[in-house]
Amino acid sequence: MKYVWGIQVGHTMIMINIPIYLLSLLYDKSYFFNAILGLVFTSTIIDWLTPLNGLVHLPIITSAIIGGMTIGIGVGFMLRQHISPGGVDLLALLISKTTAINPGIIIFIIDSLIVIAGIIILKDLKLMYSLITISCVGFCVIIINSFKTINFLR
C-alpha cells in the first residue's frame, strides 16, 4: 500500500469515491452495479499487468501519450456500455446522462482541475505530463462516445 503524507492512498481513494458510488446508487442502480463491475474488472486487469511494469522504458512524454490513449480507449468503450471504473469516470457518466454532454469532456475538465490544483499546491511542473495524459484520455473518450454506433465489420 502506498503512503502519501502518512495516509494509505488505497483507503483514501475508497473514502473519496464512496459519495460518488452512493450518488449512483440513488440516481440509477444499474450505474452503481455497473461501476462495481467496472471497478473489479479494471482492478483485476491492473493486477494482471503489474509484472510488465518496467519492461519497456520510454521517454516520459511518449509514456504520457501512449498511457493516456490506452486508458482513454478502455474507459471510452466502458462508458459506451454505461460501465465505469468509478471515481471521476462514474461522476462523468452520471453528469452526461442528465446533461447530454460527452463524458470525455467532463472527465477532461474535472481531472484537469484536480491536476492544476496539484501543480499550484505542490509547485511541481512535472505534473504537466499528467495534463498530457488527461488530454489524451479525454480525447479518446470523446471520440469513442461521439458516435451512436461503431461497426468494425461490414
Q: In whole angstroms, how far apart are the ends? A: 47 Å
H/E element sequence: EEHHHHHH
Helical residue percent band: over 70%
Secondary structural class? mainly alpha
Give the spatial strand order of the biggest sheet: 1-2
Summarize the structure.
With 154 residues, this protein is mainly alpha-helical. The chain is built from six helices and two strands.
Give structural notes.
The chain is an all-alpha fold and 154 residues long. Helices cover 71% and strands 3% of the residues. It starts with a strand and ends in a 10-residue tail after the last helix. Strand 1 (3-4) and strand 2 (7-8) form a beta hairpin. Helix 3 packs parallel to helix 6. It has a two-stranded antiparallel ribbon.
Notable characteristics:
154 residues, mainly alpha, two-stranded antiparallel ribbon, 6 helices, 2 strands, globular, disordered N terminus
Q: What is the topological layout?
A:
Blueprint: E1 3-4, E2 7-8, H1 9-27, H2 29-49, H3 60-80, H4 88-99, H5 103-122, H6 128-144
Antiparallel strand pairs: 1-2
